[in-house]
Write a structure and sequence with these properties.
By secondary structure, the protein is α+β, with helices and mostly antiparallel strands. It is about 45% helix and about 20% strand.
């Protein structure tokens, strides 16, 4: 059986501020079938404690701060990254992972955030819209498995409802009489449909 027959491809997704090196969003993933507590198995989380994660992130930020490329091999892991404003977006995969696929993930995240935040991807905006950020990451990756890389689809699944729709919801009569009227209306429409068939 081939060694890499799993959909698991992302070890971590990191969003770190370049100004003060603070963590905005960090998610580390472990393969669903990796033995617990092992860090040398393919797909196992190599940084199980927060201390190890912060040390990895600090070294990664120092290494990529002055880089001109978008892909590096760091600590035996393929790391793809993009700088947006004052934050760095990282996607970390295993050493034998496809860097083009991982780069597609970081581009999807960048473009989805640009759509959701109206091209204002900076630390302050990301913190203020943390709900949209975490939902976008969850739409792209689930437990290390890449689900979606189209930024338009991601942003449509994550975005808040338009404000004009919220105003029309307020005018719905939820009293007992209103519900009875809705029931009668539904019955009439169903009867009309049945007569047409």
């Amino acid at each position: 059986m081939p060694a890499n027959m799993s959909l698991f491809s992302v070890n971590a997704i990191l969003i770190i501020s370049t100004d003060d090196r603070s963590r905005i969003l960090t998610k580390y993933y472990s393969a669903p079938h990796a033995p617990p507590g092992s860090t040398n198995q393919p797909g196992a989380n190599p940084y199980p404690t927060v201390k190890e994660q912060k040390a990895f992130e600090k070294g990664l930020l120092e290494k990529t701060n002055k880089q001109t490329s978008d892909v590096i091999l760091y600590d035996g892991r393929v790391v793809v990254f993009k700088m947006e404003g004052d934050v760095m977006l990282y996607v970390v995969g295993g050493g034998d992972e496809n860097e083009i696929m991982l780069f597609g993930v970081v581009l999807a995240l960048r473009d989805a955030l640009a759509i959701l935040l109206k091209n204002s991807t900076d630390k302050r905006t990301l913190i203020e819209n943390y709900d949209l950020l975490s939902l976008a990451v969850d739409e792209i990756i689930d437990d290390g498995i890449i689900l979606e890389t189209d930024p338009v689809i991601i942003s449509s699944r994550v975005s808040k409802p338009p404000t004009q729709d919220i105003a029309s919801v307020k005018n719905i009569d939820l009293s007992e009489q209103g519900l009875l009227n809705a029931w009668e209306f539904g019955k009439l429409k169903l009867a009309e449909r049945m007569r047409q068939l």
